[in-house]
Amino acid sequence: MKERGNRSLSRSFGKSLALIWAYTGLNLSAAMEYRAAFISQVLGMALNDAMMIFFWYLFFRQFPRVGGWGLPDILRLWGIAAVGFGLATALFGQCVRLATLISGGQLDYFLALPKDTLLHVLISRMSTSAWGDVAFGIVAFLLAGDLRPTTILLFVVFAATGCAICVAYHVLVGSLAFWLGNSEAVSSQASATLINFSTYPGSIFHGWVKVLTFTLIPAALVGHLPVELLRQFDPLAFLAVLAFAIASLALAAFVFRLGLRRYESGSLIVLRG
């Protein structure tokens, strides 16, 4: 019985990955129809990220360390955070627009589809500029040095957990629209807060702010703790990051399904191009 359940779970996971892959290909194909716009958006986002690193470079020329962190640590932090957030909004682009879809009554289309509603909603749209974040994050990590196989493997894992936590966070915040109605401003502010907290050294946060970065605003799990683990690996802390990412996704899915029960259509005719 248990073996049958494992096979069913594995089959379901495989189908979900295939669906994500198919939608990513379709979204990329649609974006490449306007190749110049696609390239300009990707380069623009990468340049925007690079400007922030340039300011950090100037800062570290005057102050070599901040709470024990140096420029290589900042490069790794931005690398992990940029790739994680970039993948979240590239592969699951609707996560940042979930509140808008709910309050606007635009979930009706997805409710009629056979696949998991939340997954279908998330992957139905891609943020083109997010690929600029992904490209920049990889370059930033390479510039930080220490390219041992174990370090590269950890970077890939932390980019994946960062993506999972970012998606879960946005789904949880966006799902507030089921109960609060129009909460687009709250969702947008929450997204900006996570990004801002995730791209500053974790050592500068203390007291209740530090507690927030491990709970309501999980910036520490997105970037701070992974960077510390790249500096000095701790198996228990590593497992804690993995467990938090998985638990976050499970909680986000549960809250969304709970909210879906009280969802009321906005009686809108939505035309999808």
Question: What can you see in these coordinates?
Answer:
- With 273 residues, the protein is mostly helical.
- The chain has one domain.
- Helices cover 74% and strands 0% of the residues.
- The chain has 13 helices and no strands.
- The protein has helices at 2-32, 35-62, 71-91, 98-103, 108-111, 117-123, 130-143, 149-174, 177-180, 184-198, 207-213, 219-231, 235-260.
- Helix 3 (71-91) packs across helix 8 (149-174), helix 8 (149-174) packs antiparallel against helix 10 and helix 10 (184-198) runs parallel beside helix 12.
- The longest helix has 31 residues, at 2-32.
- The radius of gyration is 19 Å and the shape is globular.
- The termini are far apart.
- End-to-end C-alpha gap: 45 Å
Helix content, binned percent: over 70%
Q: Main sheet?
A: none
Task: Output mean pLDDT.
Answer: 88
Order of helices and strands: HHHHHHHHHHHHH
C-alpha geometry = globular
Q: Please report which band the strand proportion falls in: under 5%, 5-15%, 15-25%, 25-35%, 35-45% or over 45%.
A: under 5%
Determine Rg (CA atoms, Å).
19 Å
State the total count of DSSP E strands. Answer: 0
The number of helical runs is 13
Oligomer: single chain
Quickly give the structural class.
mainly alpha
Any low-confidence stretches, pLDDT <50, length ≥5? 266-273
Number of spatially distinct domains: 1
